[in-house]
Specification:
- The protein is mainly alpha-helical.
- The chain has one domain.
- Strands 1-2 form a two-stranded antiparallel ribbon.
- A hairpin with an 8-residue loop joins strand 1 and strand 2.
- The chain is extended and about 45 Å long.
């Protein structure tokens, strides 16, 4: 991840801090202690499920309490993902 961010900055990427924050929250925080070769299918599936089921984070001021949206995995209109409807042509 560090190599990617370094390359991104070298190429002139303007959102490196934002990408680093999101990567830490979603990838490095939960999985950073594991070597890639030691990640199991179950661990990755659990990690993926946890991301999908946690409340959506809205922007909050620095130092403020996280602004989380409620998420009901049984509510089909909760915006929790799933297949998108086909686009009418």
């Amino acid at each position: 991840m560090a190599d990617y961010l370094e390359d991104y900055r070298r190429r002139g990427g303007k959102a490196a801090d934002s990408i680093e924050s999101v990567a830490w929250q979603n990838i490095l925080g939960p999985l950073g202690e594991f070597e890639v070769g030691k990640l199991t299918t179950k661990r990755l599936a659990d990690w993926h499920r946890a991301i999908a089921e946690r409340p959506r984070r809205w922007r909050a001021r620095a130092g403020a309490k996280p602004n989380l949206a409620a998420f009901d995995r049984k509510d089909p209109d909760a915006g929790g993902g799933g297949a998108r409807p086909p686009i009418a042509c």
